[in-house]
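Homework-ish question, so no full write-ups if that breaks the rules, but can someone show me the predicted structure for this set?
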Amino acid sequence: MSITLPTYSRLELPLLARRQRVWAIIATGLRKELRRPAAIVVTGIGVAFTTITSLVLLFLSQIIPTGQAADLTFFAGPASNFFVLFFVSLMAAVIGAGLIADDMQSMAFTLYLSRPITQVDYLLAKAAILAPLIAMVTILPLLLTALVAALLGFFSWTIALEAMGISIVVGGLLTLFYTAVTLFLSSLSRRKGIAAAGVFAVNFGLTIPATVLALAIRNDSILYMSPWNDYVAVASGAFGGPSIGIDWPVALAILLGVTVLAALVTYVRMKAVEVVTG
Amino acid sequence: MNGVVDAVGVSKWYGEVLGLNAFTASFGKGITGLVGPNGAGKSTLFKLLIGQLHSDQGKITLLGENPWNNVPLKRRIGYCPEQNQVYGWLTGQRFVETLLRLDGMPAAQARQEATTR
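A: Not a homework solution, just the prediction itself:
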């Protein structure tokens, strides 16, 4: 008996740029998130709440005479809006925590790495999925507030445009911080619940005790422990607002340092990660 | 050795568990089947070959190249993982389309290829 081997032809195509392969992961990841009601609800409510509260602050400053000058210092208030912290935490937990952990759990990671994709490509794509979603809470409300303020004539266009520029830089810093930290936490375990708990621990687990302790022992240096207070100090410094008791250059250095460290550790970790299954 | 697959003294440990023990072989062109009991190291060998695992000892090459983090090489091979799960919501067509796009095919062409072939 003879065996006839099947014949087949292979479709040979040139390998397109890395950017396009990374974009394929981003598109698949975004489609996945946009199918999850939790992700849509958290993003929608987050954008609405942070924007509305910023606009309410804007209108209140015009209605109630608080002695607030019509200059850049006003924007330190909306930038320090507590809803930003709350919804950034929620978005990082609901969307970011599962970005890598879910792929490890579902074996999608195995499939990605069997294609012409490196671990670094994969990580970049995941960051590109999370960062714009977080920016919708950290940057967009501030931009809209400055825009509305200029359109309604509450502030001059010069001040509004300057506020928009600073908002992009300051909001971008917060976005990068949470993207790097969340992806680091997500890469640690196959269970996204652990990463989500980590996000809340980094935010509220440090912010609330640091604030209480700083008040109790009357030492503001404790506030450096809290990423949120570091961010508020930087935002206040950038907009020329009142000091919260800690120096903004030191707070900036801490935020940047943690962001770079988290990104670096995740990069090294992902570069060396092996697919161990079954 | 100049086979499609060349392995010389390749070993892989999962912690304290030995996944592959000093494996040496050379596979040429044509069909090669791997047969062995559970735990023999078949899956480990495949994962080493496609660069999903890094060997702890020895040298392994596929088509003459080191497979670890070798993107151009992955473009030249096909691999069907034993646990082939991606996202439950992907239809069969979308799944194929996604794989083609991950291979670097433009979106429109990937959609057409996944639909017509």
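Now go work out the reasoning yourself. Hint: Chain A has one domain: 18-62+69-272.
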